[in-house]
Automatic annotation (TrEMBL):
Lineage: Eukaryota, Fungi, Dikarya, Ascomycota, Pezizomycotina
Residue ranges of every copy of the SET domain listed in the record: 153-295
Recorded superkingdom: Eukaryota
Gene3D superfamilies per record: SET domain, Tetratricopeptide repeat domain
Protein name as annotated: SET domain-containing protein
Organism whose genome encodes this protein: Diaporthe helianthi
Cited Pfam families: SET (PF00856)
Residue span of region Disordered: 124-149
């Protein structure tokens, strides 16, 4: 006889986008973990565990109710180890929906055996939906769930009060982590509403049913007859800075906006494999919402107007709900950032007064750190590169090399090592003189790359780097 043990999925999984993606991720984790185990066999429609009573996991999660087996008696055959390991993996992804039970502890499953047997019989029936490739959807990191070697997703899609669905960190995510890498469901250029509606309809018709469901599951903030265009307009992100082409994504489009984001989105064209990446620009705690900026910043009123017009919502992020006095302080810092950016970008000033331009970079860095809580993200990448250009255009390879290295490290954090721009700046950090602007303005600051001073403390080094006091 013996006791049964296992886990039930409560409530059972739906055919919604979030459940499909999480189940696909779970199946991939199980496949990877048991890829060299002779007791685990991949069938056309499910994974079979040849232990105990041969429990199985279907590829279609909506069919699944229970994973269990005898764990004592003649049929156990080491089944309990597999039951506990798979349960740990499931808990790491689905949390409290996974209900473990063990008859040896007077516990029983949630679903009736009649329901369970019916669900198992359905495993060999054709799936009603296609299961997306989780490698393009959900990245994984080693978590802290019951079995630490089982990999779990970094995030989950949850309903958030006043926001609809959003991405929430499941584990602590270190700064610089690539949270997500995803290709767009579809892309489209900016065009009149009637034309866009037709283009989207044609593209949707060519997509799979799963992709179509993913598109229609996205939020729509704009009323009117152009339903497809409204979904696209609400969710699309530009495919590169300033690009007239926008893309919508099955998972990334659930990431909500913040004017003080903890993550950065970037269009990556590495090896012509175009995709959008999401990186943590500061440490993100488990349970914290993952956010990105939908705009380039600016003052409170301008941000609110842009977000309302472009995405159809009023921002209620931590910056936008500050008391009026603190919000005015934030606006003042952002005005200063805008003015400094304009001054630093003035080519005539860089030629005639490079030391002032460099000190403006130092002031801007301090202001960015204050406004963005010491995590300026992509702003830091640009600032260090501006400082690099000022120095290299006057022949200073020593300072230029330091600034290029800082820009490179900042880009690794917000874009990843494989970003073409990251690789370009990395090359400049090794050989600053390879930049086309080397000595373009003058050679009055001429220094070789090896002339970086040694033995300075941090304050002294920063003063040297920004030519503070010279």
């Amino acid at each position: 006889m013996g006791f049964d043990a296992g886990f039930d999925m409560v409530p059972r999984l739906s055919r919604g986008t979030a459940d499909i993606q999480l189940w696909a991720c779970f199946i991939t984790v199980v496949k990877e973990y048991y890829k060299d185990d002779a007791q685990v066999e991949l069938k056309p429609n499910y994974i079979l565990f040849k232990v105990g009573e041969h429990p199985s996991l279907p590829f279609d999660g909506a069919k699944f109710l229970r994973f269990s087996s005898k764990v004592s008696g003649g049929l156990s055959r080491h089944a309990e180890t597999y039951i506990r390991t798979v349960t740990a993996a499931a808990k790491g992804i689905f949390g409290p929906r996974v209900q473990y039970w063990n008859e040896g502890a007077d516990q029983v499953g949630y679903h009736s055996w009649a329901e369970v047997h019916e669900s198992i019989r359905s495993y060999d029936e054709p799936a009603d939906s296609e299961i997306p490739n989780p490698k393009s959807i959900v990245p994984r990191a080693t978590g802290t769930d019951p079995k630490p070697e089982i990999e779990t997703p970094l995030f989950e899609i949850k309903e958030l009060p006043g926001k609809g669905r959003g991405l929430v960190a499941r584990v602590d995510i270190p700064k610089g982590t690539r949270i997500l890498c995803e290709k767009p469901l579809l892309t489209a250029r900016s065009m009149p509403p009637d034309e866009l509606e037709l283009v989207l309809a044609i593209k949707l018709k060519a997509m799979t049913k799963t992709e179509q469901r993913q598109f229609f599951s996205l939020h729509k903030n704009f009323p009117g007859k152009h339903v497809l265009g409204a979904i696209f307009r609400t969710n699309s992100l530009p495919c590169g800075s300033g690009s007239p082409v926008g893309g919508v994504y099955p998972t990334i489009c659930f990431i909500n906006h913040s004017c003080l984001p903890n993550s950065h989105n970037n269009w990556n064209t590495c090896n012509q494999d175009e995709h959008e990446t999401i990186h943590a620009i500061r440490p993100i705690s488990a349970g914290e919402e993952i956010t990105i900026p939908y705009n380039d910043g600016g003052l409170f009123a301008a941000r609110q107007a842009f977000l309302k017009q472009s995405f159809g919502f009023d921002c209620q992020c931590t910056i936008c709900v500050l008391p009026p006095a603190q919000r005015r302080d934030s606006d003042a810092r952002r005005v200063l950032i805008q003015n400094l950016d304009a001054a630093i970008g003035d080519p005539m000033r860089m030629v005639a007064k490079p030391a002032e331009s460099l000190r403006d970079c130092q002031t801007m860095l301090r202001t960015l750190n204050k406004e963005f809580a010491d995590h300026p993200g992509a702003h830091g990448c640009s600032l260090y590169y501006d400082a690099f250009q000022i120095c290299i255009s006057h022949g200073d390879q020593a300072r230029a090399g330091v600034f290029a290295e800082r820009s490179y490290k900042a880009r690794v954090c917000v874009e990843g090592e494989d970003s073409p721009e990251t690789q370009r700046v990395k090359a400049l950090s090794v050989r600053p003189s390879s930049h086309q602007s080397y000595g373009l303005c003058s050679m009055k600051w001429k220094r070789t790359k090896s002339m970086v001073p040694k033995g300075l403390d941090e304050a002294q080094f920063e003063a040297w780097l920004f030519r503070d006091g010279r």
